[in-house]
Amino acid sequence: MQCPLIYNNKTIGAEINSVNAREIYKIINSEQEFANWIKNRISHYNFIENQDYIIELVYTKGRPRKEYYVTLDMAKELCMIENNEKGRQARRYFIECEKRLKNLEAEQMQKLAFHQSLGYKSQLKQQKEKYENEIKALKYDLEHKKELSFKRKLSEKELLELRKILAKDYDILCIKEWEMSLFAEKIGKNSVFEAVLNKLEKELNYWKNYDEFEEKWKKILRS
């Protein structure tokens, strides 16, 4: 038996592997003409175009010829319908082709998964190196910032700006040690918790609106 070609460049529904029905026709030795044979099979067994088969026009010197490309499932069914030895041989051939194609697809999927895993490992390695470099850079910056902080203290002007920024943007009250002692002394031992909170809120509000308070204070001094 001359084995028909399996085509993998035709898309029929969800199937990409197909067979030219004319080659099946030659194998089974049908007494009908090809055009009648394929039309009768399609009509009688309810095969669906673009799902079980496609039609392509082949242009030669004469009239265009219709070529029917069928899925492997339809090919097996066409062979089984004939109910003769040639048909059974062709059907067994298509079953074997399916097995080989499935094994080939599984092998290709394994290779693809292997290459993807290699790529994933490489990507993880690159990310790890990136994060390690970032950590090294952060450590370097922190060490140098510590060195800078030991070299000099903030000036009064810088400290003033820092207190305003912390109060305005972060609701953080920055108090010097001597200010804290004075603050505690003014509140007194017998002050209730609510009074402490009120005092802290007033102090925070002062630093939030430092520039406004200072301007008012200057106006009072000028008058």
TrEMBL record:
Coiled coil: 121-148
Chain ranges of the AntA/AntB antirepressor domain: 19-84
Pfam annotation, one family: AntA
Keyword Transport part of the UniProt annotation: no
Keyword list, A-Z: Coiled coil
Protein name: Phage antirepressor Ant
Organism: Campylobacter jejuni
